[in-house]
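Researcher: Please translate sequence to C-alpha cells.
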Amino acid sequence: MLEKLPDAVGHALRDRRAGLDKTLFSRLPLAAGQGAIQVKSLAFEDHAPLPARCTADGAGTSPPLQWTGVPGAAESVVLIVEDADAPTPAPLVHAIAANLPPGDGALPEGALDKGSDAGADVDLGRNSLLATGWLPPDPPPGHGPHRYVFQLFALGAGPALGGTPGRDAVMHAVQERGLASGCLVGTYERHDTTVRTDDAATVPVGTVSGAAS
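Model: Translation complete:
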C-alpha cells in the first residue's frame, strides 16, 4: 500500500523515527530476572534484510523463528514484533504471539499469519492496525532502512494473556513477571521509485529493492 506514496513523503519523514530505545526490549527492565534468550531465523541473519516474500512486496508471510535459553522457571513465552523506524511516536506493532509454550521453541514460516494452518495453535494478538496476525513490512519509499525487532519474553507464573492482547497487555505482563528476553532484528527498505540519469531526467525504477525495513 505505501509503495504508492511519492518519494517526497518518505524523504520528508526520513528523520522522523520511533527509535530502538522505545521498543519493549529496550524499555523494560525485567523485574524478575535478566536471562538472555537466543532468537534466530532460517530466513535472515540478525540485522540483515528480511526476504521480500515476508513483506508487502511479496506474499507477506511471516518468517520462521526459533529460540533457545528460556529459563526453567518460565510458564509461557510471548513474542512481539515492532518496527523501530516507523515515523510515529511509538514503534508500530507488526505481530504478537501470546501464551507460547515454555522452553526452547520455534514458529514455522507463516505461523503468525491469520488463518494459516502453520499457526493454528498460536494465540495471535493485535498489531497496530488493530487486526490479528502478521502485518507485513510496508515502509514508505525513500524513508530509508527500517528495523523490525522480533522480541521474545519468558514469563513467570501468572494468568494467560487472554483474548487478542495488544502492546499494553504484553508490556504489563513483562513488567510484572518477565524472567528473560531476547531479540532478533530484520531490516527492509523501499528505495526511491525514480532514479536520476546523467542528463538529469528521471526514469521509473521497475523493481523494489529489499535491504532494510
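Researcher: Any highlights?
Model: The radius of gyration is 18 Å.
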